[in-house]
Structure prediction request, 458 residues.
Amino acid sequence: MPVGFGGVIPIVTPAEMAAVDAAAPEPVEVLIGRAGAAVAWAARRVMGGTYGRTVHVIAGKGNNGNDGRFAAARLRQWGVQVEVHGADACPSVLDAADLVIDAAYGTGFHGEWWAPRAGATPVLAVDIPSGVDGLTGAAGRGVLPADRTVTFAALKPGLLFGPGRWLAGDVEVADIGLDAGATMAHLVDGTDVARWWRPRPPGAHKWSRAVRVVAGSPGMTGAAHLTAAAALRAGAGMVTLSTPGLEADAPVEVVVRRLEGADWAGVVLDDLDRYRALVVGPGLGRHDDTVTAVRRLVVESPLPVVVDGDGLFSLAWGASDAASVLGRRRGVTVLTPHDGEYGLLTGARPGPDRIGAARRLAASTGSVVLLKGPTTVVAGPDGDARVVTAADARLATAGTGDVLSGIIGAMIATGMPALHAATSGAWIHGDAARRGPSVGLVAGDLVAALPGVLEGLT
Prediction:
């Protein structure tokens, strides 16, 4: 993952990067020299020096290969023994060396390329591991996994999504004088979340950051419990929970208000005056009356609303689609679909371009969309997109999404803009997982870890 950064890091698609390259005032030879020098210095760091070192460089015919050839020349000046192999005439097995530099193909490559076997030799990729799709991270079977990748000016989606995320190793973004500042997609890390985080002020009271939660149903009361508990542990001063038709299963610190009858949305709407955020949907069920009530609640709520789980099903149900339902809403909305829920909302699963998918749903619904996955994308209606890589496979267990919705509700209750709140929630959620056990983590472990994560932001 990206190293050596504090601050929002730009992400550009291969097409956007080509436009950035074309707009550069310097000739391409100057840019190749800067890129090649950055690769050479990265190689030197990976090897721990240059004395007595041996390096293989695999160089293609394009500018990616030219970057590798320039790096080879610079390494030779430093006394490194370098052997350059053409990408189309490379031996199937490379001799033992101190480093392999993969400069065969860049982000514009399409197709499949079989790299030579490198044994235990460390690999440094130039811009992206050759054979990885720069837009989606898809990769063929012949890609040479990198220990480190040096990319230029900005991250590429292929380094963050799909197999590309794991094939790239540690990613270093080198500044070679290109301006990628116009991009509307960025990688977010803990430094950004700490900057957005709003600690509770000295004069705060319990209602200052109050969150209302409507969640749970028969057999799914745990979802309601986890959502409410997460909102509390993420900083909400007051959480009120209702499970329609049932006495809610809630932590002792949570206020429980019973909702009876099919038209429970009106009761909740009359009870929102002192709250700062509403979370609706986790484990709520899919009964027709529930669908009707959720739609009314979401459309008429004056509060920012986080819609998750069965709440998303309710928006997508029937002849009218989610965009038409949300088009009647005037307030801020955050939608948190996984791939299946995204398919319910749009009629098709996201596909490999996940930033584009999140942007399309955000634009069509006027909402902030958090598209869940190993790499999470948060997009606003204006196309601004944030990518969060804090999560890992430990989150692939029941109930973790309920925890996320509670965290986002608490973030919104602090007064954060919805895009920041959803992005912060995703990062905090992932960091909580990283603090848990490597095996056997359950959703409740995330709730317990939240105070420590937030303490680290102050």
User: Anything to note?
Assistant: The chain has a mean pLDDT of 94. DSSP finds 15 helices and 17 strands in the chain.
